[in-house]
Design brief:
With 334 residues, the protein is an alpha/beta fold. It is built from 15 helices and 6 strands.
């Protein structure tokens, strides 16, 4: 799973390396930095840091993990935020890029980051998250590494009021776990007022199956999930790399699916692949059926994803932002 965003104590992450949002002197500080020092063994970690200090802002250095589950700690000094016009973004990007490159140079396969500079250094959380996600994604376009980003504050995710309003309306109208007389009346009224999304009737019904497409699926009833997936990839003119990166899934996992041999993906993986292929709702359900799954109105995760598909929004990161807000598992999570 190339980029996973999750809520978890970084000091408990069982990865090859965790990243410390350090100060340039590599001294034990507060927040995440202090927690990492305490968990690793403050004296041991400080003794390992002293010969490496001071470092420049954006630079990354490495020490052993000592008592941490992680093998190593990569220390990077993020920028102190002033007004966003003093090169802060470039320095923050350098912190992520240099940490990732150091992990790769060490032959590591996994790394976990906190949201660098977003604490006492004052970098706005929404902007800090966007920089982190963008720089990590750029790195993963050419390199293979499992990257985890630990985020606790839901407000770090930038979601427009317009999008959140539409998602909320769609959930009210379609999530069966919330339906009662009062919520039905309210949800229908909200949806009717929301001009950016289709009407309640349009949203709650699957589009009619076109004869040609139905014939195509009927002619391939015995086709496996992997065969169906490969047929879709060819039909969309995409490469394997484009698909598994869009789906935010691991290359090794994709290879298992491609080989077939009785391997069946998880429901979340199957949905991620449908999103990567930009399938409509009818096509998504048909692909899921090949793996023995279906989108369910009783599952909040499914309802949120369905809303995105209906509105032809296929950006995994944007979908993950909303899933995170609703305390749902995100694509690529474990």
């Amino acid at each position: 799973m190339p980029l996973t965003i999750l809520r978890q104590d970084i000091t408990q992450m069982q990865v090859d390396a965790i990243v410390n949002a350090a100060n340039v002197q590599l001294k034990a500080g507060g927040g995440v930095c202090g927690a990492i020092f305490r968990a690793a063994g403050a004296l041991q970690l400080q003794n390992a840091c002293d010969p490496l200090s001071p470092i420049r802002t954006g630079e990354a250095v490495m020490t052993p993990g000592f008592h941490l589950p992680a093998k190593a700690v990569i220390h990077t000094a993020g920028p102190i935020y002033k007004d966003g016009k003093q090169g802060e973004e470039a320095l923050l990007r350098a912190s992520y890029r240099n940490s990732l490159q150091l992990a790769l140079d060490q032959g590591f396969e996994s790394i976990a980051f906190p949201l660098i500079s977003s604490g006492i250094y004052g970098y706005p959380k929404k902007e800090a998250l966007m920089v982190a996600a963008d720089e990590i994604r750029l790195f993963l376009e050419t390199e293979e590494l499992d990257v985890y980003l630990t985020v606790f504050d839901k407000t770090a995710f930038t979601i427009s009021d317009e999008l959140m309003g539409g998602i909320s309306s769609y959930i009210d109208a379609n999530y069966k776990g919330l339906i009662n007389e009062e919520s039905e009346e309210r949800s229908i009224r909200i949806v009717q007022d929301n001009l950016e999304y289709a009407s309640y009737e349009q949203q709650s019904k699957v589009p009619p199956i076109q004869d040609k497409r139905l014939e195509d699926w009927l002619n391939n009833l015995d086709e496996s999930f992997s065969d169906t997936l490969l047929r879709w990839i060819d039909a969309k003119g995409l490469s394997d790399i484009e698909v598994y990166k869009r789906a935010n899934i691991d290359r090794k996992l994709f290879s298992k699916i491609r080989r077939g041999q009785g391997y069946n993906p998880s429901k979340r993986t199957a949905i991620a692949l449908a999103i990567a292929l930009k399938l409509n709702l009818e096509e998504t359900n048909a692909l899921l059926e090949k793996a023995g799954y279906a989108l369910s109105p009783s599952q909040l995760f499914d309802v949120i994803v369905e809303c995105f598909i209906l509105n032809e929004i296929y950006d995994i990161f944007e979908i993950n932002a909303v899933l995170f807000r609703y305390d749902q598992p995100v694509f690529g999570s474990i």
